Amino acid sequence: MTDLLHSALHSATSKASVGGAETPPVPYSRPVTPGSTAYPSQIGFVGLGAMGSVMARNLANYRGAHVHASPPILVWNRSPASCDKLFAELGQHKIRIAKSLEQVATECDIIFTALANDEAVKSTYTKFTETLKHTPPPRGKIFVEMSTIYPTLAGELDILISSVPHCHLITSPVFGTPSVADAAQLLIVMSGDYRSKKEVAYMLVPAVGRKVVDLGGNLEKAPTFKLIGNSLILGTLEILAESYTLAEKSGIASSEVHALVKDIFPAPGLIRYSDRMSNDQFDGILFPSLALVILNVACSGTTGFAIDGGIKDASHIRRLTAVHNSPMPLIDIAHQHLITARAIHTSQVQAGQETVDVLDWSGIVAGARVAAGLEPFDHKRRAVVQED
């Protein structure tokens, strides 16, 4: 998710009020203080990608400083390197590395998952359920699904988790880039079991995010809201791509368009994507294909959001618009341009001509460019120059 939506949502939510007063960061009463015999919750975190690793780190640091006798967070990732990196940074008093998903399922009271795609999420929760049916939990567990998924998957996960006694599921996607996550300023959306949301909300704010938006008990609402937010971003990317392409065809320098964006749309995220298109900087963060690995999680790359993730989100949004008979023609076009850009990049990779390993979804501009007869990823080649 990008700084663009984060900026807009921060402005809207920070000014929201009820009866003239600002809404609180957490829309629930604080949970009852545990008795002296209560034990701190054992937290598990599955998926240490670009976002997950930062959220897990912030959560571990906050609990280490503010929760007395808090046990180290138990982390698991398909690639052990991500776990090792976090352990080296925080140490044994804040992080433990799980040997398996089964260990996370049996040892943890609250389990967060931040995975790359729907298939990875379904596979992970199937494994959780199989494990807990063989080893029924003696007390309550809360599963917190933070990935960007198609809404109906939440219902499938609920069927799995609710089949195990004492287990509850909430959906809780977040808005913000890794840099926003690093500052613990994420906007957190929640839907599902009320008591579980209350407990998790006070665990995440202010450790991981600045505010929680409650969308009620229907588990599908939070994933739907996340896709609506992503549609705002994707639509903005498409408009930028088309505008930059028209400027190139009409002989106006991309630097002039970028300056205009900064003057009339001073949103950090929009400026950042404008800068990428203006300077042909399309390096992204990798989300490897499930065809390559089972139980896939997001892996760190460089700076952006991989176009594969953008295509997945666009596909989810288009499916949602069809279900609700609510057309979004701009998203249809954006989806086509994303696929075109990925096809071109794949051809370049096969020919050994690629300039970036992972294409960021701002590379959507390549789709608009080739439709206009321009070079896809280098606007300075064969540029159109209009004479005065």
TrEMBL record:
**Molecular function terms in GO for this entry?**
NADP binding; oxidoreductase activity
Which InterPro entries does the record associate with it? Answer: 3-OH-isobutyrate_DH-rel_CS, 6-PGluconate_DH-like_C_sf, 6PGD_dom2, 6PGDH_NADP-bd, HIBADH-related_NP60_sf, NAD(P)-bd_dom_sf
**Domain (6-phosphogluconate dehydrogenase NADP-binding) ranges:** 42-213
Spell out the family assignment given in the record's similarity comment: Belongs to the HIBADH-related family. NP60 subfamily.
Task: Specify the protein name.
Answer: NAD-P-binding protein
